[in-house]
Amino acid sequence: MRVLGVDPGLTRCGLGVVDGAPGRRLELVEVDVVRTPAVDDVSRRLLGLDDAITLWLRRHRPDAVAVERVFSQHNVRTVMGTAQAAAVAMLAAARVGLPVALHTPSEVKAAVSGSGRADKAQVATMVTRLLRLPATPQPADAADALALAICHLWLAPRQVAS
Fold this sequence. Notes:
five-stranded mixed beta sheet, single chain, Nucleotidyltransferase, domain 5
């Protein structure tokens, strides 16, 4: 199975594609971070994210898209941008008929590191080990996108079975 993981953000949106299945070796396909200029109008920034995600969907042809579930934060402006970016990813996937799964940060942390309270460094270290990478993907949004893809690869078969 191939999964596109999306760590949504308006300024930095992590994208990571991973091939794998439970009990099988994981393979990194590609990882990157899409950046949009803070000085641009929000609508232009969202269009830029849509263009980039659509390109990745065409190029990698994933079986599913895993997006981080937006959670409430104290900074309303930040959560709004994150929610908008998540919606763009969900819309792009729906446009091409792909299933979308939303995973909470603690669900992703638990799946990848074994602890739902792991910090970003622990998650990034486990992503690096699981994918046998020579270095930790940077910035953190890249590692987070890969963690989302890995989480979905490991949890999706259980969710279907239950």
